[in-house]
């Protein structure tokens, strides 16, 4: 996601908390839904690029090193 690449991940591996399907990545449940997901986006470079850019933006605004360090610091200090 931080590279702006399209991420396709299985939806039952904890990725639902990180990826909003069709917004900043793609989630699938089984082999058939993976096939459909790939078929849907294959050849749609504009949509793939758009999702990748939103993924990168989300990582930079919500999961940058500085933001994560601030969260850890606040948790360790009992601030949050």
What is the tally of beta strands? 2
Helix and strand run? EEHHH
Helicity range: 40-55%
Strand residue content: 5-15%
Class based on secondary structure composition and strand pairing: mainly alpha
Number of contiguous helices: 3
Nearest-integer average pLDDT: 92
Structural Rg: 15 Å
Amino-to-carboxy terminus distance: 27 Å
- Low-confidence segments, ≥5 residues, pLDDT <50? none
Largest beta sheet: what is the strand line-up?
Answer: 1-2
What composes the largest sheet? 2 strands, parallel
Shape: elongated
Secondary-structure blueprint of this entry?
Elements: E1 8-10, E2 26-28, H1 31-41, H2 45-62, H3 65-77
Parallel strand pairs: 1-2
Descriptive overview:
It is a single chain. The chain has 3 helices and 2 strands. By secondary structure, it is mostly helical. The two termini are about 25 Å apart. The longest helix is centred in the C-terminal third of the chain and has 18 residues.
Question: What keyword list fits this structure?
Answer:
8% strand, two-stranded parallel sheet, mainly alpha, single chain, 2 strands, 80 residues
Give a short overview.
With 80 residues, the chain is mainly alpha-helical. The protein is built from 3 helices and 2 strands; from the N terminus they run ββααα.
